[in-house]
Glutamine amidotransferase
Amino acid sequence: MCRWLAYTGSPVLIDDLIYKPTNSLVVQSLHSRLGAEATNGDGVGVGWYTEGSPTPGVFRSIEPAWSDRNLRELAEHVRSGMVLAHIRATSGSAVQQTNCHPFRHGRWLWMHNGLLAGFSAMKRDLVLAVDPDLFPFIEGSTDSEVLFYLALTFGLEDDPPAAVARAVGLVEEVGRAHGVAFPVQMTVCTTDGQRLWAFRYSTEGQSRSLFHNADVAVLKEQYPENPVLHDLSDETRIVVSEPLGDLKGAWHEVPESTCLLIDAGREELIPFEPRSPAH
């Protein structure tokens, strides 16, 4: 499917996040260890927030991450305290810029690993459920973008966990109506630039991998000679499709059917369950 990374903490160069780690996102674009495919070469995207800007910046490209020279140039010069990065392996939709993640609406960013099974059969019903005022902003043809706009329709800007629960609930209702046994497979990340939410869920209960880092202050005590750790602020939080390295104890798996909320360096694990949008 895809691989992604979300970072929140003191400002760092994007290069430090997506190129320098041992199992960096760029390495994963060629040699993913835990993905459905080893290669994720159908595009790359980065979203970031900078102080004083009302909306996040977004870079999206159909080039593979391992060979995109513009991505390398941007990564070496952009510094941010909130970064989302994504490498794409398409599940059927076209390889084009408008289908690359992260997707943006106002201050919000969204990225997804997984798929909505049977999307071609469900697409008309799902798109018609999007708020008419939001519909014109859908630019691409992916299930991921439609899921984003369904979440916006159900109140993402006010209550992200409830909105995503309703969006997923709708997809499962429509999927069942079309005879799809397991409509949803997702690890999703969304942020408004201040807080970050990551969701791990699948209808089948066998979700794609998702991890978050252990407490940085604890890791600094355990590995006092590790220079990488001492460059990170204690409030640093990283959420990834697969660990960026092999440091023992550095990564914790996000449980099945869980929403991970990160706010100002504090994190909370919240049970996630789809809800009927009628409720």
Summary: The chain has a mean pLDDT of 94. The radius of gyration is 18 Å. The longest strand covers residues 2-13. The CA atoms of residues 36 and 143 lie 17 Å apart.
